[in-house]
Structures are given as structure tokens and as C-alpha cells.
Amino acid sequence: MGLPGHRRTSSDKRRRAAQHGLKASAATTCPKCGKTIRPHRACAFCGTYRGRQVLNVAKRTTRATRKNKK
User: Fold this and answer.
1) Which of 24, 29, 42, 60 is an S-S bond match for 49, by CB 3.0 to 4.6 Å?
2) Longest C-alpha distance within the chain, in Å?
3) pLDDT tens-digit series, residues 10-29
4) Number of Cα atoms under 13 Å in the Cβ half of residue 49
């Protein structure tokens, strides 16, 4: 039967309990396509961020399908 290795200090208990106070990150909607996205990130569906195109979504999807076929 195992024995306890070390005593749990009060700071260890408080550090573990602090994780219960975390809040879920807020989700916003993409103004162009209306999909739900995380804040301050480019939309993975249409590739826009703050009203301009930053990702080439067509290129990414063809690359992903080519990779999945192998």
C-alpha cells in the first residue's frame, strides 16, 4: 500500500483551487460569414480578420485534402 509522499501545503491547495475560478473564453461571431470564432483570431472558415483577407482558405483546404489522401 502506498504512502503519501509529501504534505500538501496551504499554497498548493490554494493554487489548485484557483483553477476553479477561471472563466471560459468569450466567443464572437465573424462579421463576414457569421461563424463563431475566438476573439482576436482570424476566422478559419472565411479567412478574414478585422475586415480584410489574411488567410487563403482555398489553398489550405486543398493542402489538407491532399495530405489526408496519403
Assistant:
1) 42
2) 62
3) 888 888 888 788 888 889 99
4) 11
Tens-digit pLDDT profile for residues 26-56: 899 999 999 999 999 999 999 999 999 998 9
How many Cα atoms sit within 13 Å of 16 on the Cβ side? 6
| pLDDT at 70 > cutoff 80 | no
Name the residue among 57, 40, 58 with its Cα closest to residue 49.
40
In a 3-state reduction of DSSP, which class is residue 28?
A: strand
Alpha carbon of residue 64 to chain centroid = 20
